[in-house]
Structures are given as C-alpha cells and as structure tokens.
Amino acid sequence: MLKKMRWRWILSIMTVLIIFTGCTDDDGNEKSNETENSNGQGNEEQIEQTQNEKSDDSESETTKDDSQKISLSDVEPIPTDEEGLASQKPGPLANVESLFDMEDEIKEQLNKLGPMSEDPGDEEYEKYLRYMYSLVKEDYPNPEDMVKKWEFASFGNPDLPDAKFQFKENYNIEIILDSSGSMANLAGNGTRMDVAKESINSFLSEVPEEANVSLRVHGHKGTGADSDKEMSCNAIEQVYGFDSYDEEDFQNSLNQFQPKGWTPLADALKQSQDALGEFDAKNNTNLIYVVSDGIETCDGDPVEVAKSLSESNASPIINIIGFQTDAEAQKQLEEMAEVSGGIFASANNEEDLQEEFDRAEEVMEAWSKWKNNALGDLEAKEVSSSFDIMELHNKWSFTTMRIDNRMHNVADIASNLNFITSDQSKGLKSRLEPVINEMNSTVDQLEKDLQELREKDLQEAKQSIEEKYNKQTEN
C-alpha cells in the first residue's frame, strides 16, 4: 500500500513537472516569437526607410546630373562664314594624331552630354553636332595676318608709311623663347623645345654677318610646382648676344637650358625692351620673334607690355609664333601681335615653324643687299601675293577636310561607347554634310575676295581686310 502511494506521488510530481515545463516552453516561445515579430517588423521598416532614402538620393543625383548636362544654348553654333572661321580658336582635341587613341578623353567629354535619347529631335541632333565640332575645331589662318605678311615682305620699301618697316643702317634681331615645362611635350620626333632650338639655330645661321642676334629664354629654372613659382618666374636670361652669329657659341648657348617651369612672358618682354633701349629706331631696324606654346603664368600682362615695347624708342616689329597652343594661349598671343602691329602665326609642327623663320630670312637677305647697294633706288619689292592667296586657300580647304574627318571619327567613337546608336551616328553625319559643303563654299569665295583685294594698294588692302576679318580680340 505504501509502495503504491509512493509511486502515485512520484507520478504526480512528474506530471506536474511535465505540465510546468510545457507551460514554460509555450510562454518562452510566445515571448520569443513576439520578440522576433517585433524585430522583424522593425527591420522591415528600417529597410523600407533606407530604400526610400536611397531612392530619394538617386532621384536627387539624377536631377543634379540632369541639371549639369549641356543644353543647346550652351554650345556656340558652327561657323560657316569667313569672319566666323577666321576668328575660331582650336578645340581641346585639335591636332590630335589619332582620335581613336583618345577614347577615354572623348568619353569624359561626352559624359557632359550624356547618351542621346531613343527618339532624338532636330534640337538634340544639333546640340550633339555643335558639341562634337567644339571638340575638334581647328585654327583657320587669318587673312589679316596674310596682309601683314605682305607688308613684312615689302620690308625696305621707302613708301611704306610705317618707318619700322624701312631699312636702317643696323639690323638687330632677338628671339624670345619659352622654356616652361610644357615645352617638353612631344612634337614629332622630339620635344617642342628640340624643334624650336633646331629651327631657331637654322634661321640665325643664315642671317648676314653684319646683323646682331640675341636669344632670350624664360622659365628655364625650377619646376611647374607652386613652391618653385617665384624662382621660375624670375628665370629670364639673355643667353646670347647682341652679337653676330657664331655657330659654336650659339650652340653652346642653346645647350645651357631645358624646359622647366613657369611662363614669365611679360617680364621677358620688359627685359627685351630694356636691352633694345640703345638701338633707336632712327638708326636701327629691330625685329623680335616670340616663340611660345602657352599663356602667361607669372601674373604679368604681356599684351600691355607688347604694346609698350612696340611704341618704345626702339620701335621693334614683334612677330609671335604660337607653337601647338591651346585656345586660351592663342588668344593672348594674337592680342600681343595685334596691339604691337606684328604678325601672329600658328605652328603645329617643325615645318610650320621653319616657314615663319624662312620669311624673316628673305627680309634679312634683302637688307643685306640694300646695305651693299644692290637694290639700286630701293624700288618696292614685288610680293608674291598670288602664291600667298593660293596657300591660304589650301590651308583653309585642308583644315575643313580635317574637321570633317574628325567629326566622323567622333561620331564613330560615340557609337562604340554607346552614347549614340549606329543609326544616330548616321543621322549626325548626314546633318554634317550640308554644313561642310557651306564651309567649302566659303573657302572658295574667300579666294575670290582676296584676289580682288590683291589689285588694291597695300595700305588700302590692309584697311579693307582689317575691317572684314576683325579678330575680335576684345571679345
């Protein structure tokens, strides 16, 4: 009996424990489920909130990107008239040998436009066409500079109204050479500096023995770093002359410097003015050639200094050669030539650079003959203007053809990069064709206009062409 009661007691205890354990598990599970449900709901709300924030950020970025995209009004129309082409400055991809090697740069530029829409209208096509043109446009030689070259070629003519173009007993010529860091950039088989040195040496080796020559360099010390700016901007040195040309001495002078730092062009002109102070215009013919590939970077005003130098007692002719310059540098160099009455010439290679020095060589030869009484009564030297007009026409034609080819290349690259479809590329090219045709018609008309001007007196022609082909340097 007692044994049965013990077993019943044990069973009761076990039953209570089982029931208690079951209740505890149920309560615990309920609490755990409540917690999980609570946490799950919180996570879902947090995820949803984060997604909404990301969506808002994405919309904000899209709106921001869209607001930064280029519109049609942001891009200048493509010029097709004589005045517009003559005042055009080169684009960032001008004179690049192969655009297909510049896909990364072109992609960066096209990102400013973004992909063309699926169904573009005329306005969107025009925007793309204008923008592509702005990238590859090139410099057209200005007809005004051609007339100045006629005047320069007539050096020695006593009938020329500007006395600086009349031969004097002494002839002094100074080369002011940019030796900033950018002159180390490649140009053909060497650097820009290599090409410039070779052309300058070749030119000066042909000048008459009686002429005095000088070479002044600037920016040839330090580096392009801000910490070296003061030292580099003060680095201006006359490394040769004024003296007659001596091949060995001049070569040694050329070997003294390499492209290094900044561009103190204004101060270099000031030092040139000081050096020419002893060579008054009454007894001296003074000629300066500035060879530079960049803009003033030492806080000077080379345009103002060039004007002051041209009006000084030495009254030199200041001819400017822009060697593979960008649009900003070309504008400044053109202004320097404009205010000083000199010639600006754009040189993209060694041949162009040598061509400008060859013109000066012809003048030096004429001076030498005059000095030795070989020109008789100094009758005006005939200018081969017909050849100049033909040469200018050819350069305009070739420039238009290059731009046309490069526009087609950019359209193909834009298609490869998925900015436009193949059909849209064809659409751009078809819209380009009438523009190029109009430009070619302008080139042909230019030749006719210049032939008419050729029949006029030099000064009359100069006045007419200055009025028509104003470089708009004030803009």
From TrEMBL:
Superkingdom of origin organism: Bacteria
Keyword annotations from UniProtKB, A to Z: Coiled coil, Signal
InterPro entries: VWF_A, vWFA_dom_sf
Residue ranges of coiled coil: 436-475
Record Gene3D superfamilies: von Willebrand factor, type A domain (3.40.50.410)
Signal peptide: 1-24
Region annotation (Disordered) ranges: 23-92
Basic and acidic residues bias spans: 51-68
Family matches, as SUPFAM superfamilies: vWA-like
Domain VWFA: 172-363
This protein's record includes keyword Ligase: no
Biased composition (Polar residues): 35-50
Keyword RNA-binding in record: no
Protein name listed in UniProt: VWFA domain-containing protein
